[in-house]
Specification:
globular, alpha/beta, 12 helices
């Protein structure tokens, strides 16, 4: 009986091995892919991630879904991906905030922003737009009016941000330093609550990301005073730069979006994903959506190598801005 049982088990194992080998050798991808985001639905990150997911799903032949896990300035989603299996089914929609600014802003992180990633594609440069509420700030028609109001009442004016250390916060710090004004920073959890604070009159101004700002300006919900780039944005041709509007020479405050994966992702998967993403974001319709609807400048070189160079540079660049600002999250 023991011998018959052993033979039966051996036969079952022999039959199972080919199926197991076939499953292990199945080409990537063969099941749904998740792109994690660290910011709420409706944020600039969420909008771009969902726009990218649709053509990426068609190109790869499997569903590509977006899963937002918010909190801690994007660190919750970033840590999740840093610890995920490098099997090509979990990616991260990263930003200069999550993987450059946070490196200095937080006294300690549960992951290494540079080492605990595999670079896939640089997705574009993202500016901010200085906006106010026409209803609640009728006397602030331009940036010089804002500066004059801030100087007249030191500490009385406040500005919204999408969270401590976010680009929307640091743009405000850069502005206050350059204009030599004393204004109060009020952080919110994401773009939606911050925008609501502006529209309700709870805050005076907001350096919001370009995509949501452009949409709100076109609908007449906000007045766009300036853009944080060196040149004007195509979708807001009548809105001057901060340098033009505020008289602050050399002012610039832009960040980036990028697709990342867990560390040690196999090179063939990295290359395939990078190629598909680069092709999609270079298509005319996608470029038009980026520039005309979101105010995002497509990356001249979205390759993993170029992305890593930008990432390394911006850890140092934004680190200096954070140190000058005095911002810190423990």
């Amino acid at each position: 009986m023991i011998r018959r049982t052993a033979l039966r088990l051996a036969a079952m194992t022999a039959l199972a091995l080919p199926a197991l080998a076939q499953a292990q050798e199945a080409p990537w991808p063969n099941r749904p892919i998740t792109i994690m985001g660290g910011f709420p639905n409706g944020s600039g990150v969420d909008i771009y991630a969902r726009k990218l997911a649709e053509p990426l799903s068609r190109a790869l032949g499997v569903p590509v879904v977006v899963d937002n896990r918010t909190g801690a300035g994007g660190n919750i989603a970033s840590e999740y991906v840093a610890r995920a299996r490098p099997d090509g089914y979990t990616f991260l929609f990263g930003t200069a905030g999550t993987h450059a600014i946070n490196a200095t802003l937080y006294s300690s992180l549960p992951f290494d922003p540079l080492k605990d990633v595999t670079h896939i594609a640089l997705l574009g440069d993202v500016p901010n737009v200085l906006i106010v509420s026409p209803q609640h700030s009728p006397n602030i028609g331009n940036c010089r009016d804002l500066i004059a109001a801030a100087k007249a009442r030191p500490g009385a004016l406040n500005y919204a941000s999408t969270g401590n250390g976010a680009s929307t916060h640091l743009a405000g710090v850069q502005f206050a330093t350059a204009a030599d004004v004393n204004v109060l920073h009020i952080p919110y959890r994401g773009q939606g609550p911050a925008m609501l604070s502006l529209l309700s009159g709870e805050t005076t101004f907001f350096f919001n990301q370009s995509g949501p700002s452009i949409a709100a300006a076109r609908q007449g919900q906000v007045r766009a005073l300036a853009v944080t780039t060196r040149q004007r944005l195509t979708p807001l041709p009548d809105v001057p730069t901060v340098e033009e509007a505020c008289g602050l020479p050399g002012f610039e405050s832009t960040t980036w979006y990028g697709l990342l994966a867990p560390p040690n992702l196999p090179a063939p998967i990295q290359q395939r994903m990078a190629q598909e993403v680069a092709r999609i974001i270079s298509e005319p319709d996608f470029v038009n959506w980026l520039t005309e609807n979101q105010g995002i400048t497509p990356a001249a070189d979205p390759s993993p190598a170029a992305f890593r160079q930008v990432h390394e540079r911006d850890i140092a660049r934004w680190g200096e801005v954070v140190r000058r600002s005095g911002a810190r999250v423990d």
